[in-house]
Amino acid sequence: MNFNRKKYIRLIATLIITVCFSTGCSNNSSKEASSSIKEVSNFIDKNHEYVNLNQKISNKSFSIMDEDIKKNGVILTGEDHATSKSFKVQLALLIYLNKKYKLKYSLAKLPACTKGNKTSFK
């Protein structure tokens, strides 16, 4: 009896693994993913603004977002991973939002080494 139970459990486990692998590896999902990547790339090509970190960051750098900011109460920004210069852009964006739209609160995901350094807008 115990031997049959072990066989049954192995068979079920094998079936589950087979189903998981077979559904996740279809050609359709890879075609959809590549078209999504193209759509995102096209969107970014049309809706971006170059920020030169070697010059003073101007308000013009962020004005591309003005129409969306006016229509929304919450602004989500992307994350940065292993980019040392992005903090300068993040700070400039916060200053811009505070001056132009009276931003009061910002919830930021900061690296552990900057948790103690908080900036207050008044």
TrEMBL record:
Protein name per Swiss-Prot or TrEMBL: Uncharacterized protein
Record organism: Clostridium felsineum
Organism taxonomic ancestry: Bacteria, Bacillati, Bacillota, Clostridia, Eubacteriales
